[in-house]
Amino acid sequence: MQKIIILDFGSQTTQLIGRRVRELDTFCEILPYNKMPLDDPDVIGVILSGSPYSVYDPEAFKIDLAQLRGRYPILGICYGAQFMSHTLGGRVEPAPSREYGRQHLTTIDLANPLFQGFELGSQVWMSHGDTITALPEGFRCIASTETVQFAAYQAEGEPLWGVQFHPEVFHSVQGTQLLRNFVVGVCGSQQDWSAASFVETTVAELRQQLGQDRVILGLSGGVDSSVAAVLLNRAIGDRLTCIFVDHGLLRKDEFQQVMDDYKVLGLNVIGVDASQKFFGDLAGVTDPEQKRKIIGRDFVEVFNAEAKKITDARWLAQGTIYPDRIESLNITGKTIKSHHNVGGLPKEMNLQLCEPLKWLFKDEVRRVGRQLQMPEHLITRHPFPGPGLAVRILGDITPERVRILQEADDIYIRALREYKVRLSGDEARRVLAAGVPAQMQDGEVEVSLYDQVWQAGAILLATVRSVGVMGDERTYEHPVALRAVTSTDAMTADWAHLPYDFMARVSNDIINHVRGVNRVCYDISSKPPATIEWE
Ligand code: XMP
Q1: What pTM was estimated for this model as a whole?
Q2: 64, 65, 281, 507: which could form a disulfide with 520 (CB 3.0–4.6 Å)?
Q3: 416 CA distance to ligand 1 centroid (A)?
């Protein structure tokens, strides 16, 4: 299958480049800058990403361009462009001030293949400390902004381009067009990577790989494991056994609802209510890490006990997705993200790993889910932490506290689903690109607040009490904090700016209907320095 290779020099936006290329129905792989697969015959083009380094940093990542030139079309983005210019005889210098933010292309060579369909004045997003001050011999400037003379260049007569702006970010309004010009126009992508083709080829591959074997899969109610299950079910029917463990720390009624959804989807699911065991082991535990350890351990015990009953199983399937596996680099060049895995299945079970979604980004998983005709509420469900509400109750966990939090959370989440907002511009494009099922009309889309945010939930501050008054009575109860964030990958997140009238209504509803809560706060912390979850 045709593919684009994106060599990662450590930029925060490298994954975004990958997502944009996939949105052009073209398969791509993101690899560390020094792992170019030179013997892969399917590669049709190479993109060099940005980097936190300057080309002059002694530790800056370098590659041998001679291995790529003449073999593949190349597009350098930001550092990628500066690195090529610097290495091939041009000049790169610190910019008088950091070039950051929106700029407009005031000159463009509209005849250049990279700028087909562009409009003069097109907005682009810059973010760099250095700038190119002279191009290598035989290179030609093909676009400028008011302050950046060499915003884009091409090596004369060669399929090698550099752009100092970031076409992958939303603020570069025609960025996707530029990437399309490179990926489709120059590299010749046939654009045959789609959800439908993915389902077709993956089902065929799974049948081939698994034969008559039996497979076990741990379901969480989340989109990744659910889509993996439905895909496997398509391939091998009820030779797939799914295990869904209820630790008693799910959202209100969630276990039953998700079990019902799975039944409708025809999945062979064993639901295990292990809440008593979890509550017993968590009693009196207040330390967040301790809670996580206990839940992780209990989960493995319960899962294993069920898995062992399926004595002829040969495979363990997981909903691992591509961002879980990309080796992202940090500034030291060390890999900072390691693969999360369902830990500790007994060795004697001798299971092989099957990860049918391992090449997909989250939005693609959702597209595949739609292709498989899964219900929309399963596909657009917010991420939810494995330890569940345990990490959203400060202090020790009791069934009563879980009940209070479930009620408050339920009011909040329902209200988020009901409240509709109209978005335009960058925001509208962001939610559409994330796969939210909405139509653009007159430049606007209508979505629920639930679909607008990445994740939301309520937190019970069970270690805090405050005074209130209800009717004529003094109350002395716990506050609930509400959290909602926008994000693309949960690595960074911003608190969502929810409408005041919405917050006022939810606050009233919670205080009036949830016994045990007399105050509601809204968490206005970003990540970093805060995290999304409180514990
Ligand atoms: P933080 O709190 O680290 O969360 O900003 C980032 C994302 O990860 C989710 N999360 C977890 N997911 N097991 C999970 O499966 C966990 O232990 C866990 N802790 C946090 C969190 O909900 C957010 O989406």
Answers
A1: 0.86
A2: 507
A3: 20
